[in-house]
Amino acid sequence: MTAEQILVIDAGTTSTRAMLFAVDGTSLGSEQCELRQSYPRPGWVEHDPEEIWRSSLACARKMVAQAGGAEGIAAIGITNQRETVVFWSRRTGEALGPAIVWQDRRTAAYCARLKDEGHEPALQAKTGLLLDPYFSATKIAWALENMEAVAAAGDDLCIGTVESWLVFRLTGGLHISDATNASRTALMDIHKGRWDEGLLDLFEVPRGTLPEIADCAGRYGETSLFGAPIPLCGMAGDQQAAAIGQACLAPGETKATYGTGAFVLTHTGDEAPLSHHRLLTTVAWQLEGKRAYAREGSVFVAGSLIQWLRDELGLIRTAAESEELARSVADSGGVMLVPALTGLGAPHWAPDARAALSGLSFATGRAHIVRAALEAQAHQTHDLMRAFAGDGAEWRCLKVDGGMVANDWLAQDLADVLDLEVERPKFVETTAVGAAMLAGVGAGLFGSLEEAAVMRGAVERFVPDMAPEVRDARLAGWREAVGKVLR
Ligand code: ADP
Prior knowledge:
binds adenosine-5'-diphosphate; Nucleotidyltransferase, domain 5
């Protein structure tokens, strides 16, 4: 048998998946396990690293069986929830406590203190990030001080983001991270591609606990857990993988992923321009030691708003029902929803802001509220578009993906409000496609990412069709509503 299938492990926030691809991008199968979320205190979010590992392995095993055995697989690609940190023993490989998840806000006061002390400008200049609990560094500092087993581990301690944890387990001891994931820790100098001594000192992180920073494609090592050895050949954080899967390979090309949160990345080539509008600068990929960069806008609440309408308010039975309800009314009837349920991310960065539902009257029905929730996605994206434009990055087209854009109404509303063509691939699992493209390049199945982009497949287009006065009125209403939340 010739090994020509690519296996992707996608360790996400709400689920862990494995997917199998043919080299032409055809999806040959997928397997998924839900991931338990724990919220031990307000603002804290944790995962069990052993569960992440067990479910990754179980899903991957199913796909290996589907491929007809390990011999049928040319390479493994890994993509993952970013910023989340795992602590484990180098000797036993066992986790030393819970993973602290990207959404966790336990270090908010610590971040505020560092900001007051004036550390943000230097941190931004080196890492492209801001001082926010979102990034790994303050979570690591917290664990080194407060998690007993982590504090006591000494030389036995390994720290890594989720892809590092999976690689360590898959290979039985290789401790590496790819440059995209490393760029989200707030410990890496993104211009030099290495851990920054000054930041390691600031957060008191011992260098020896951290992984080596590697390219996003190459032959890192092999796993022998599936019968025959399979090489690990590709790695990238989920949003970078999605940008690659959407073939955002030239400067200016932009993608937006609408999953739990919404994440917009614009490719900036080999330049790493710092933002003046509170956007992030991040590594898009690193190949043969050379980095490409992207600007990023991260919005914390997108699809989770629809989940909240379903699970907490009981306004809808399924996420898909939101589309039908939005279409059932001519507009939101003046209702505005600002989804700041965990504060506002880019470009506002207001961790203490809280959500607001306004403009209600006796004429308001559930369809208006659900429509307002969907409309909020275009409004939030419009704020990002203005921030990107302020930084000199004008969008020419928006390539969308993620669970929410299965909703045609939402995809059209994005085109209408942004006044921009929106492009949606027929196969929306672009994160997995991006990881498969990287693994294909790493395994030598493709000569370049451009060549690997055949895996993206066909796309559908949504063209703007909204009267300017309707758009202006919507955006004016939104600006007023956000202004109240930020006050
Ligand atoms: P993640 O990868 O972040 O776990 P996904 O990309 O799988 O998320 O997207 C799931 C999210 O999309 C959920 O929050 C869900 O509420 C939302 N969603 C799924 N289908 C629809 C739909 N038809 N309309 C609106 N939102 C949807």
